[in-house]
Amino acid sequence: MKTIIEPFRIKSVEPIRFTSREERKRILQNAAYNAFRIHSEDVLIDLLTDSGTSAMSSRQWAGIMEGDESYAGSPSFFRFEESVRSITGMPYIIPTHQGRAAEKIIFTILGGKGKYFLSNTLFDTTRANIEFSGAEGIDLLCPEGKLPSVPAPFKGNMDVKALRTRIEALGAEHIPMVILTVTNNSGGGQPVSLDNIRSVKAVCKEFGIPLFLDACRFAENAYFIKLREEGYADKTVPEIAREMFSYADGCTMSAKKDAFANIGGFLAMRDLELGIRCRNLLIITEGFTTYGGLAGRDLEAIAIGLQEVMEEPYLQYRIRSIEYLADKLVAAGVPVMQPAGGHAVYLDAKAFLPHIPVDQYPGQSLVCALYEAGGIRSVEIGSLMFGKYDAEAQLIPAALELVRLAIPRRVYTQSHIDYVAEVILEVFNNRAQLRGLRIIEEAPLLRHFTAKLQPV
Ligand code: F0G
């Protein structure tokens, strides 16, 4: 059969609230044209993030009831540990309340002034935790990853030549770790190939630098390898995932993504001495080693979700449903990043709204237009999020002006996605009428979360 169906039935539903265009105009104004300020009850289709927004399975809900809330030695922890170990092969597994808590622990221990962390692309919280420690984060994405409209199979790959040059220039002794983000969220949810992971590992090994994976979307990455990389079509996703982790000395994970959990994460590694240091810090900041800031029931949900996410009918439906939305948009001439990512479709706002200059935030204007036209919430990944000011208070824009439509896992059906495409096309057909925005209030750091804006 050609039709790829949702590989689940729906047992429990959550109503969504319809609003009129007039209401949404008012809501936008009250939210100061910032989607983070909109109450989720006023959103019809929420594509702000795929993080913590998954629908859990009946097996996960059953696991929630099995959760053992003992402070120490809970069986829920051992089930969680076994699930993580079966995929990563790593002996030291440290639960944390979300991905950035794992980052905080590892970068507190390995970071500091004069240190450099090299990556394909660091996610914002990863970079923030590196910088907070006093160290510097450096992105070395492959050249094709920087061209939104040019399709390539593994646009999340690291530039291996640049990695070697950088290590030689900075000195391996100043580089505590290389990090591969799989899939590369900030670079469009694009996958990293096993060939690239192997090559990066070979360079790391030569210089004695540990390789870590930021593994939030490891299963989506593994499925892309199965589909696109020579020699992997007949391998199972768990086999591919195990091979990915086999080259890594450790990983950080947000279980809010590819573990279908609403909260949680972990840090895992092979080195005993590092493991002990991380566990000691965990006890101070997150909790005892067998719960790390999580309830036992969350550990159960993660243990089960990590296995479910590798089921191929799910991944086939997942990857195809993202591509389905991108295909519809591409067919209508809407500029989108190509190929579609594993968890999101990214609109190229600069090409969508060429008449709005970057200092009037075309991405944010598009975010507002999608909300006003159809109650869809998306997020700007452009100069509102990443722009900085020079000494004359002029905006230094971001490299790309993107709008991310992140698709929560197992939450929306094909007709929801058809509706999303219809709304985007309506906005696209009326794009000449859209205006830019100006910031009227902003915080010094991570301003996009709280900034207030106004139409120009
Ligand atoms: N690494 C990557 C690649 C991520 O995408 C995220 C979160 C994190 C680390 C941090 O994990 O939220 O559990 O602390 N990304 C979310 C997003 C927030 O919307 O892309 P966390």
Helix proportion range: 40-55%
**Major sheet, described briefly?**
7 strands, mixed
Cofactors and ligands: ligand F0G
Which whole number gives the mean pLDDT?
96
Sheet/helix structural class: alpha/beta
**Helix tally?**
16
C-alpha end-to-end distance = 51 Å
- pLDDT < 50 stretches: none
In terms of DSSP E residues, the strand content is: 5-15%
Quick one: overall form?
A: globular
C-alpha-based Rg, rounded: 22 Å
Description:
This protein has 456 residues and is of the alpha/beta class. 40% of the residues lie in helices and 14% in strands. It has 16 helices and 16 strands. It has helices spanning 21-30, 58-66, 75-88, 99-110, 124-132, 160-170, 194-207, 218-228, 237-246, 272-285, 296-308, 312-331, 349-352, 362-374, 383-386, 414-429; strands at 45-46, 92-96, 116-119, 136-139, 177-181, 211-214, 250-254, 265-269, 344-348, 376-377, 379-381, 388-389, 395-396, 402-406, 437-441, 452-455. A 7-stranded mixed beta sheet has the order 2-8-7-6-5-3-4, sandwiched between helices. It has a 3-stranded antiparallel beta sheet with strand order 9-14-11. It has a two-stranded parallel sheet with strand order 1-10. Helix 3 (75-88) runs parallel beside helix 11 (296-308), helix 4 packs parallel to helix 5 (124-132) and helix 6 (160-170) packs parallel to helix 7 (194-207). The model has no long low-confidence stretch (mean pLDDT 96). The chain binds ligand F0G. Ligand F0G binds at residues 49, 51, 98-100, 123, 125-126, 181, 185, 214, 216, 254, 256, 265.
What's the structural blueprint in terms of helices and strands?
Blueprint: H1 21-30, E1 45-46, H2 58-66, H3 75-88, E2 92-96, H4 99-110, E3 116-119, H5 124-132, E4 136-139, H6 160-170, E5 177-181, H7 194-207, E6 211-214, H8 218-228, H9 237-246, E7 250-254, E8 265-269, H10 272-285, H11 296-308, H12 312-331, E9 344-348, H13 349-352, H14 362-374, E10 376-377, E11 379-381, H15 383-386, E12 388-389, E13 395-396, E14 402-406, H16 414-429, E15 437-441, E16 452-455
Parallel strand pairs: 1-10, 3-4, 3-5, 5-6, 6-7
Antiparallel strand pairs: 2-8, 7-8, 9-14, 11-14, 12-13, 15-16
Helix pairs in contact: 1-14, 2-11, 3-11, 4-5, 6-7, 8-9, 8-12, 12-16, 14-16
Bound molecules: ligand F0G.
The site of ligand F0G has 15 residues, from helix 4 and helix 5.
